[in-house]
Write a structure and sequence with these properties.
- The chain has 18 helices and 34 strands.
- The chain is α+β, with helices and mostly antiparallel strands.
- Strand 19 and strand 20 form a beta hairpin.
- Helix 6 packs parallel to helix 9 and helix 7 packs across helix 9.
- It starts with a helix and ends in a 7-residue tail after the last helix.
- 53% of the residues are buried.
């Protein structure tokens, strides 16, 4: 029996073919070709039809004879966008709740976002999909996130069409479309839309930002969900890993990214001043880790914005929003949840800690917005801002609850089932936001920064998870400066808006592949006035089984079975489709989903539920899955499936994601690491093998000539095995053998360090890391490129001064059962 999604695809393809065959010839040629210069001359330009990309080769219309003297050259015309097409600056920040920025009623200053809103339009009913990878896939392709294989973050990919993390070739991104129309396209910041098994320097690279699916000429950023802004060890220029922070104290990626974008803007203006550009600017701010500079922390702390706590902040923001007109005057402030303590019930120490967390986060948002403002100003300095379409999306989902109830000094702690208390976090109070922490705020702030809505990131069924502020400006075209727009729109509507602004059609084929129809609708109609009815009449939402559907002012939503910060061991439902109850809201009268009408209008609710099922079948949403971390540790494709022995000769650096077979994973198993080395005269120092860094990981190295193996257990403890004597010059075989006390997850074991077959240290370690090392660090042999596993022992790059002839890692079987994976997965926080 044919599945609903396959049936829809076949019907859509047939309708598309029939439409093309029946379309009048005049309609097919609706995009009149624009040419400049003398045909065949070096300076000639042309626009292209745009429905079939790339454009067919231009015919040679010169003359060729045996001798050049009797021949006539003819150059193909250079392809350019339509006359007057704007530059495009597409900005998306990370984990910013609707009400965090000042532009939408918050207290955190965001003058760059204010600038775009004041010179253009502010959109108050713009929606994302509750999680980062899915939102970004939808933003770039104009299709729903399941339609492009990204129903969840790529780290959680499973083998279903809606969830495999692979943006298909029949849904190319806006970068590739504009590039083939003559635009310069560049991408700065986060790429969380790259399948994990392709995210190393070995590629393949067709799914990278510079590949033919996303289509950007230049990339400066990081794959994955987050990275340290102080020492980003997963930073790439195009497809080459780089470490510009080494030897540069005070370097920060938020500033460095802006510098890169500004440099390209200036270069293009000098070298190709008439060539339009598209910039996709996606900083890591404000996803954890929250890493602003000390100057920004002081600037925000001195304002004392958060001293009265999160409940008072909500009331203040709510009043600001009504004053600004970004919510209706009759909007209701949703109730505070019982699962989050109210501010006046907290201890003085907790209030001190949580205020520090809020100050650091606010500094991070203000800092990120400031650097975005520098990029906007750089365009203005070239005189091109008037003809630049700027779309500034404030967050890829609602505010993040992933800091749990007390906040996190180290995001990797909770990912390994260590739940920091107020007391534990206070040890890092003074360092909060520095490179000595990988921090996140307590969940009370997330609820406040989603005012006036309920719920947070991860919850796709409520606006706290999906409604994000957005501002759009194009001074040459949008004249209602400072206007506010309340039409219901979705992130998939950005691509068709850009295409309409540029004046090019949605392509039918790209690179020989027939394209899925774009599922968004253009927002350009809103530029003329605020009273036009919304052209987005229907939109489904789904994440982790929690779901909703909107139609013509009505919204049906499923409340979560437990809050996303609840780390209990409750079993997920086996029947996700029927395990959730539904609520019903009239959004036209109830802006914040405060008044559930399900009991009063069961027939309307039933119609909405059926609509969701139809939309889900259409867009590859099934099968529904309510698991979270289970999918992080599930098997994914690998270029070395089942590999149990790894052999290295010489240096190797920046290999990510051991979970997908690109590097050895030492977790939950026995293993042996053997290094054959030549120690030089005067002794040897340096790294032999490492993965992870300051907040979780291991290292095998020589320290002042003595072999050492160190495990860093989420910065709370470091366990070492060390030789007492230095190695003599010459050849040696060094071995570290770990016997795991399994079966089980995160169990202890006994480590034994040997030199030339002789035991030099052996002792147990009571527990080990159960789930993950630092995902923004990489596996290295012969050096360390990120942060050290022990700052007291060495500093990066700690290159081995001897000769590493051979290093071998032998892995025993993984001793974590599927049932144990599921149990532990439910005790930990998602890391999206």
């Amino acid at each position: 029996m044919m599945s609903a999604s396959n049936l829809h695809r076949r019907i859509s393809s047939r309708f598309l073919l029939a439409a093309l065959l029946l379309m009048p010839l005049t309609a097919l040629n609706a995009n009149a070709q624009q040419t400049t210069g003398t045909p065949g001359s070096p300076g000639a330009t042309t626009t292209i039809d745009g429905r079939y990309l790339p454009n067919p080769p231009q015919p040679f219309r010169g003359e060729i004879n045996p001798n050049a003297v009797q021949s006539k050259p003819y150059w193909p015309a250079r392809i350019v966008p339509p006359k007057g097409a704007p530059n495009v600056l597409l900005i998306m920040t990370d984990d910013v709740g609707f009400s965090a920025p000042s532009t939408f009623g918050g207290v955190i200053p965001t003058p760059a976002l204010d600038r775009i809103a004041q010179t253009g339009l502010r959109y108050t009913a713009f929606h994302t999909v509750a999680l980062c990878s899915p939102t970004r896939a939808a933003l770039l392709t104009g299709r729903n996130h399941h339609s492009v294989g990204t129903g969840v973050v790529v780290d959680q990919a499973t083998g279903y069409p809606g969830y495999n993390s692979i943006i298909p070739r029949d849904a190319v991104a806006i970068g590739e479309i504009l590039r083939q129309h003559g635009y310069d396209t560049s991408w700065y910041g986060k790429d969380h839309n790259l399948p994990q098994w392709e995210a190393s320097q070995a590629g393949p690279f067709h799914n990278w930002p510079t590949g033919p699916i996303k289509g950007f000429d230049y990339f400066y950023g990081f794959p994955g969900d987050d990275t340290s802004q102080w020492q980003p060890n997963n930073l790439f220029r195009n497809t080459t890993p780089i470490q510009p922070f080494q030897g540069n104290p005070g370097w920060n990626l938020i500033t460095a990214m802006a510098d890169e974008a500004i440099g390209r803007i200036k270069m293009l203006n000098d070298v190709q001043p008439d060539r339009p550009f598209m910039i996709y600017y996606a900083p890591g701010g404000t996803h954890s880790p929250h890493h602003p500079t000390p100057e920004w922390i002081k600037k925000i702390s001195d304002l004392h914005l958060f001293d009265k706590g999160w409940n008072d902040l909500r009331e203040q923001i709510f009043a600001n929003q009504k004053r600004l007109g970004v919510i209706p005057q009759n909007a209701q402030l949703t109730a505070w949840p019982d699962s989050i303590p109210k501010w006046d019930t907290l201890s003085p120490e907790a209030k001190k800690l949580y205020t520090r967390q809020a100050d650091v986060y606010a500094a991070y948002l203000a800092y990120t917005d400031y650097e975005i403002g520098r990029v906007i100003q750089a365009i203005a300095d070239t005189g091109k801002l008037d003809n630049t379409l700027v779309i500034y999306v404030s967050g890829d989902n609602g505010a993040s609850p992933e800091g749990t109830l007390h906040g996190l000094y180290n995001e990797f702690a909770v990912a390994n089932a260590v739940h920091p208390t107020v007391e534990m976090n206070m040890k890092f109070y003074d360092a909060w936001g520095s490179d000595q922490t990988y921090p996140h705020y307590a969940v009370g702030w997330a609820w406040a920064w989603d005012t006036p809505f309920k719920w947070t990131k991860q919850i796709a069924s409520y606006f706290g998870g999906t409604r994000n502020g957005m501002a759009m400006a194009w001074p040459a075209r949008i004249k209602d400066a400072g206007g506010i727009r309340h039409q219901f729109h979705h992130v998939i509507d950005v691509v068709p808006t850009i295409l309409e602004a540029v004046g090019v059609p949605e392509p039918v084929t790209v690179n020989g592949i027939a394209q899925k129809p774009i599922e968004g609708v253009s927002m350009a109609y809103t530029w003329e006035g605020g009273s036009a009815p919304s052209r987005r009449t229907t939109q489904y939402f789904e994440m982790f089984g929690k779901r909703a559907v909107y139609q013509d002012g009505w919204m049906a939503s499923t409340p979560p079975l437990s809050p996303p910060w609840d780390l209990s061991l409750a079993e997920p439902p086996s029947d996700v489709m029927n395990a959730y109850r539904w609520e019903l809201y009239n959004i036209n009268e109830d802006w914040t989903q405060s008044n559930d009408l399900a009991a009063k209008m069961p027939d309307k609710l039933r119609d909405m539920q059926q609509l969701f099922t139809m939309e889900a079948a259409k867009y590859q949403v099934f099968p529904l899955d309510d698991t979270r971390l289970t999918r992080f540790i599930s098997h994914k494709p690998s270029y070395a499936p089942g590999r149990t022995q790894f052999t290295y000769s010489g240096e190797l650096s920046n290999v990510p994601f051991p979970e997908t077979g690109s590097a050895p994973s030492l977790l939950n198993r026995s293993y042996t690491v053997t290094a054959e080395v030549d120690v030089p005269q005067g002794g040897g120092d340096g790294m032999l093998m490492t993965d992870g860094g300051r907040f979780a990981g291991y290292g095998f190295y020589l320290l002042k000539g003595r072999p050492v193996f160190t495990w860093n257990l989420v910065a709370l403890e470091r366990v070492k095995w060390q030789a007492k004597e230095t190695l003599a010059p010459g050849k040696h075989t060094l071995e570290f053998d770990w016997k795991y006390d399994g079966p089980g997850l995160g169990k202890g074991g006994t480590g034994t360090l040997k030199v030339d077959g002789k035991v030099v240290d052996s002792h147990p370690m009571p527990r080990s890391l159960p789930i993950t090392l630092m995902w923004d660090e990489t596996f290295n042999v012969g050096l360390d490129t990120g942060t050290s596993v022990d700052d007291q022992d060495y500093q990066v790059p700690f290159r081995f001064t001897g000769k590493l002839n051979k290093l071998t890692v032998k892995l025993g079987p993984n001793e974590m059962s599927p049932a144990e994976k599921e149990t532990v997965a439910k005790t930990m926080r998602d890391k999206q």
